[in-house]
Specification:
Largest sheet: 2 strands, antiparallel
Number of helices: 6
Number of strands: 4
Shape: elongated
Strand content: 5-15%
Order of helices and strands: HHHHEEHEEH
Radius of gyration: 22 Å
């Protein structure tokens, strides 16, 4: 198994369960050569089955039921947009501590349910429950809460190149990365900026030339 959506972007993978949040965001279409993995029920269900299976493998759990309803793909695309907004805020909103047995409440106001259970070492774990879209929402908000408490949440970012927009995990020492790949998106952005500066400079020189031209 693998994180299919994120592999398409060849991004640095977030650690453990936080990779599920990254994977959801990277289901978005990649320009003209890779489709939106949440475009329809069949495609979305195939993606969710793989993503949930990878999440379950990481956590040593059984894969959930990933069946989706006809309306779920649209809801999942809305959920993806919610997480994109959450990651692109200047200061990522913190998730408040949930009441016993309840996950943090997302922006939509829809409450999530989770289960608290000890593992073999006696450590209590926050486990998502439900099936399909409900399970995914529970898992995503649970992993967000855990990542914020662990301090890894600020390192999950959206590539600043608007043409790309992939979610990547910043491994730089001072957490200053803005491109999923400096050689690809960073160079492209620098080239566009250089061309823009040249256009502005040429326009300014043209204006000065017009002013110096004698009239009459």
């Amino acid at each position: 198994m693998s994180w299919v959506a994120s592999e398409r972007y060849r991004v640095r993978q977030a650690p453990a369960g936080l990779a599920l949040v990254q994977e959801l965001i990277n289901t978005r279409a990649i320009r003209e050569y890779a489709p939106d993995l949440l475009a329809d029920r069949e495609t979305a269900e195939r993606w969710l089955t793989g993503a949930a299976g990878e999440w379950a493998r990481i956590h040593g759990l059984d894969s959930p039921d990933c069946a989706l309803s006809p309306s779920d793909p649209r809801a999942l695309r809305d959920l993806r947009e919610s997480f994109e907004r959450l990651l692109t805020t200047t200061a990522p909103a913190s998730v408040t501590d949930p009441a016993p047995g309840a996950a943090p409440r997302p922006a939509s106001g829809r409450g999530m349910t989770v289960r608290l259970a000890p593992d073999e070492a006696g450590q209590v774990r926050l486990l998502p429950v439900g099936r399909g879209r409900g399970w995914l929402e529970s898992a995503l908000w649970s992993e967000t809460l855990l990542a914020q408490r662990a301090g890894t949440w600020p390192r999950l970012k959206i590539c600043r190149n608007s043409v790309c927009g992939s979610a990547f995990y910043d491994t730089s020492r001072n957490n200053s990365g803005v491109w999923h790949d400096v050689r690809v998106c960073g160079n492209a952005a620098n080239l566009r900026a250089s061309r823009q500066r040249k256009r502005i400079r040429d326009a300014a020189e043209g204006d000065r030339g017009d002013e110096d031209t004698p009239t009459g």
